[in-house]
């Protein structure tokens, strides 16, 4: 793979891969819609054979970023290469070598499973026998079924099969598990792991913290259109949320003395739940201080830091707050569109 000299590996991306092992290089990608900057200077690399995640709230610019890399949107700045190809100038060649499950993936309600995959296979001659692909993704029994009759998990399996029928070297999965129940979501996670085990590089777009932490070899945290951190999930946790958190519940009102306890860095309260953050032997010191003050909460325990703690540390807000803000913004836009439609 040849890498364009102007988009060499960005210094803040911790990928250890050499240029020959990189399948995606994004450098300074930018996209603006009127007065809204959707993506600002997105820079990252994806190495061959990894599951690379773009993690962030709805509206953070994740989908726009991967659409630019697939040649579906033209960037207003910056450059990208996928498999050494320019997504704008070499889009036709690129699409023969990648697979894509878009966030808004949909099929006609009455199209049959075999008709959908036969159609996709015809678009990329020389790919795999779609009957084999159906069998691999446990859809053979449903090959005559209409799309509308499939369960949520079966629909996801079909979308994955459609994305893989051309034997892609890279597959983009955009919010693949949104709308699935917990059991179907875990099934989808198994599918994603299996895709990687077959040798395909996976770019996973998600706003689910647990999903990103469990599946991804490396993560790019995206907030407000910017890539704000890149590392392995454990690397991010160690760098940004490496402290120990002790949690317990109590109805005791005055806990200010806990802040002066050895190894305690912060004390936060949420109703009856108390979180004590610190380092060293903070668990032992917290337990001793509680007993000394006549408190022995039976649920005292240590909680390991997570990617959610990383996101909060870096951005200063939770993912849920961003999702709620995005939903409210969508409702406002919907009301404005209804108002405009009602005007004479």
Give the tags.
Alpha-Beta Plaits, elongated, 35% helix, six-stranded mixed beta sheet, 11 helices, disordered N terminus, 2 domains, 344 residues, alpha/beta, four-stranded antiparallel beta sheet, Rossmann fold
Descriptive account of the structure:
The protein has 344 residues and is of the alpha/beta class. It folds into 2 domains: 234 residues, Rossmann fold; 62 residues, Alpha-Beta Plaits, CATH 3.30.70. It is built from 11 helices and 13 strands. The strands form 3 sheets. It has a 6-stranded mixed β-sheet, with helices on both faces. Strands 11-12-10-13 form a 4-stranded antiparallel β-sheet. β6, α6 and β7 form a beta-alpha-beta unit. The protein is elongated and about 75 Å long.
Helix amount: 25-40%
Stated plainly, the CATH topology of the largest domain is called: Rossmann fold
Q: Say how many strands there are.
A: 13
Mean pLDDT: 85
Write the layout of secondary structure elements.
Elements lengths: L21 E12 L2 E12 L3 E5 L6 H8 L7 E6 L8 H5 L2 E4 L11 H11 L6 H7 L15 H13 L5 E5 L7 H16 L3 E6 L2 H7 L2 E6 L2 E6 L1 H8 L3 E6 L14 E7 L2 E6 L3 H11 L8 E3 L3 H9 L3 H24 L2
Parallel strand pairs: 3-7, 3-8, 5-6, 6-7
Antiparallel strand pairs: 1-2, 1-4, 8-9, 10-12, 10-13, 11-12
Helix pairs in contact: 5-6, 8-10
């Amino acid at each position: 793979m040849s890498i364009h000299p102007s988009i060499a590996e960005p210094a803040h991306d911790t990928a250890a891969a050499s240029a020959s092992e990189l399948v995606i290089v994004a450098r300074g990608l930018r996209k603006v819609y009127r007065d809204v900057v959707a993506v600002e200077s997105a820079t990252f690399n994806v190495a061959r054979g990894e599951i690379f995640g773009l993690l962030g709230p709805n509206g953070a610019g994740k989908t726009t970023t991967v659409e630019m890399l697939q040649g579906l949107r033209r960037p207003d700045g910056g450059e990208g290469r996928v498999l050494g190809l320019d997504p704008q100038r070499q889009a036709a060649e690129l699409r023969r070598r990648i697979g894509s499950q878009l966030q808004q993936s949909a099929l006609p309600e009455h199209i049959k499973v075999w008709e959908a995959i036969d159609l996709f296979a015809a678009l990329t001659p020389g790919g795999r026998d779609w009957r084999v692909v159906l069998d691999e993704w446990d859809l053979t029994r449903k090959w005559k079924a209409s799309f509308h009759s499939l369960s949520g998990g079966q629909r996801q399996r079909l979308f994955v099969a459609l994305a893989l029928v051309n034997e892609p070297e890279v597959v983009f999965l955009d919010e693949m598990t949104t709308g699935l129940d917990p059991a179907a979501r875990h099934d989808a996670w198994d599918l994603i792991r299996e895709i990687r085990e077959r040798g395909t590089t996976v770019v996973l777009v998600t706003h689910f913290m647990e999903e990103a932490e469990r599946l991804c070899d490396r993560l790019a945290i995206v907030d407000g259109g910017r890539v704000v951190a890149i590392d392995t999930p454990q690397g991010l946790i160690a760098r940004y949320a490496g402290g120990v958190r002790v949690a317990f519940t109590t109805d005791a009102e005055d806990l200010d003395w806990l802040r002066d306890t050895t190894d305690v860095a912060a004390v936060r309260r949420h109703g009856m739940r108390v979180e004590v953050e610190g380092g060293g032997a903070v668990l032992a010191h917290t337990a001793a201080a509680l007993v000394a003050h006549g408190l022995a909460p039976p649920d005292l325990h240590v909680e390991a830091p997570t990617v959610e703690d990383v996101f909060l540390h870096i951005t200063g807000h939770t993912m849920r707050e961003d999702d709620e803000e995005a939903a409210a913004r969508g409702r406002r836009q919907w009301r404005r569109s209804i108002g405009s439609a009602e005007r004479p």
